[in-house]
Design goal:
Elements (H helix, E strand, L loop, with lengths): L1 E6 L6 E7 L11 H12 L10 H11 L2 E7 L14 E10 L7 E11 L8 H15 L4 E4 L13 E2 L2 E8 L13 E4 L5 H15 L9 H7 L14 E6 L5 E9 L8 E9 L2 H12 L6 E8 L4 H4 L6 E8 L2 E4 L2 H6 L7 E8 L7 E8 L2 E6 L8 E4 H8 L5 H6 L3 E3 L4 H9 L12
Helix pairs in contact: 4-5
The protein binds acetyl coenzyme *A (ACO).
The site of acetyl coenzyme *A has 21 residues, from strand 5 and helix 3.
């Protein structure tokens, strides 16, 4: 698929090219794929990829089903980068989001958003984003998601931040010990086995974790060391340990890397830690704690409700370095999205939802019984319980954000008594949502 349209620019007309990457895509330097890829690297201050790496990226993007958008300025200055290299980039792909419903929902994932400084603040992002969200909504996808480089960009497009992780350092010297009785066993994995192992374990995690997003092709390669941090070539320093439960099933893994002898305290960084069960999570930490010579473990993907400090003999081994927002959620179809999530109590609420992009605004009656929601569009003059913007609903959607906090911030307006308590009871869960997929 490839489409080209022109967008009225300022001094020059800009051309928008959109194509889905397939196995037939030409990976040569100077081709449209390599040029698009180069533009993304420019946007994120990364070096241009090596020519021999492009076939691996084409394979990955094909497996992900990525649709790429590039905006071209065909009349650059005489000494400027050629017009075949986009001045703006954007990509999307489809995967699933666990919203706590019976099964994960289809989700539209957005990534690789860049606009070159020479062309910024002329509405290119707005143009690419609104076209894309309209297309995804028309295709019937209930929700779009992204991870944001800056928290200031996406609220205006109806995204609300919905999941968070904690960055931690764990001191694994003498004081480190985990209470309780270990289960199963944890062993170093054979690298060739890791791609299949990681996919299987992640599938289990994804099915049980509200807020989780299905993963792209590169994950299994990165956690096995087949791909390194910078390039799709082997990184021999990556190690992976697998946890087997008492039945001998592989239910968790941790991929990690030593930071080197020049850094003190001697530190191992967790690349990815995925546990299919609570026991497996602690077992993987027992393994990390038993790495001889290592003094600290760092990980930026711990859950907000991390059980680890509570399981430690000395909780002061666990240091929180910061919290990060991870998943930003944009509802494209309020009825489908709310019917596709799980609920922990029952009740009825009428929500008046505004949407500046005109995609999903309206007045909706949500009736929840037996953990399932039913949504009907109702007249705007119905008795409304809560008024909110689509972005605020996106933040509430996965249950990780307190409605009372959004009321306090002026983002949610309750009109009836008890409405916020009911919103809280319906939407929030015993655990915060948790997303360990970055894309
Ligand atoms: C999902 C991801 O890929 S996250 C990665 C996002 N990309 C980056 O951080 C790379 C560096 N930044 C950039 O490439 C660009 O500055 C972008 C993509 C953030 C913005 O592109 P632009 O084409 O300049 O945005 P555009 O002109 O369409 O702006 C749309 C609106 O967003 C606002 N805006 C754009 N960028 C920002 C920002 N960083 N902070 C606050 N507001 C912003 C504009 O002021 C404008 O507001 P308005 O519609 O109310 O007037």
């Amino acid at each position: 698929m490839s489409t080209q349209t022109t967008t009225p620019g300022t001094s020059t007309e800009l051309r928008l090219e959109k194509f889905q990457v397939t196995a037939e895509e030409d990976p040569s330097p100077g081709g449209r794929f390599a040029n698009w890829h180069y533009a993304v690297r420019v946007g994120f201050f990364e070096p241009r990829a090596d020519a021999e790496d492009y076939p691996a990226y084409v394979r990955a993007f094909t497996a992900d089903g990525r649709v790429l958008v590039g905006v071209h300025d065909d009349a650059p200055g005489a000494l400027s980068v050629d017009g075949s290299v986009p001045v703006a980039t954007y990509a999307s792909m489809r995967n699933t989001l666990n919203a706590g419903g019976l099964e994960p929902l289809p989700a539209h994932l957005i990534t690789s958003v860049t606009v070159r400084p020479s062309h910024r603040r002329r509405g290119l992002l707005r143009r690419m984003m609104t076209d894309d969200l309209q297309g995804a909504a028309a295709a019937g996808v209930p929700v779009a998601v992204l991870t944001a480089s800056e928290a200031t960009i996406y609220g205006r497009f109806g995204f609300g931040c919905a999941t968070f992780t904690t960055s931690v350092t764990v001191d694994v010297r003498e004081r480190f010990a985990i209470l309780g009785t270990p289960t199963g066993r944890t062993e170093l994995a054979e690298p060739d086995e890791v791609p299949a192992l990681s996919a299987e374990v992640f599938a289990r995690f994804h099915a049980r974790t509200r807020g989780s997003v299905g993963r792209q092709y590169s994950y299994a390669r990165r956690v096995s060391g087949q791909w390194g941090r910078e390039r799709p070539v082997e990184d021999k320093a990556v190690r992976t340990a697998v946890h087997y439960d008492d039945a001998g099933d592989a239910v968790g893994y941790v991929a990690y890397r030593f930071d080197g002898w020049s850094k003190e305290p001697y530190t191992v960084s967790v690349i990815d830690l995925v546990a299919g069960t609570e026991e497996s999570y602690l077992a993987l930490w027992r393994y990390l704690g038993a790495l001889d010579l290592i003094q600290e473990i760092t990980w930026d993907g711990a859950a907000v409700d991390d059980p680890l400090p509570w399981a430690l003999a000395d909780r002061r081994c666990y240091r929180v370095n910061g919290h990060e927002d991870v998943l930003w959620v944009r509802l494209l179809d309020v009825a489908k999205a709310l019917e596709g999530r799980g609920y922990r109590s029952s009740g009825r609420l009428v929500l008046e939802v505004s949407d500046a992009l005109g995609l999903a605004g309206g007045t909706y009656q949500l009736t929840v019984a037996g953990g399932r929601g039913r949504v009907e569009r109702v007249d705007s003059d119905s008795d409304v319980d809560v008024v909110l913007d689509i972005g605020a609903l996106g933040s509430l959607y996965l249950g990780g954000v307190s409605p009372a906090a959004l009321v306090g911030a002026g983002l949610v307006e309750p009109l009836t008594e008890g409405a916020i308590e009911l919103l809280n009871d319906l939407f929030r869960d015993a655990q915060n949502p948790y997303c360990i997929t970055h894309f």
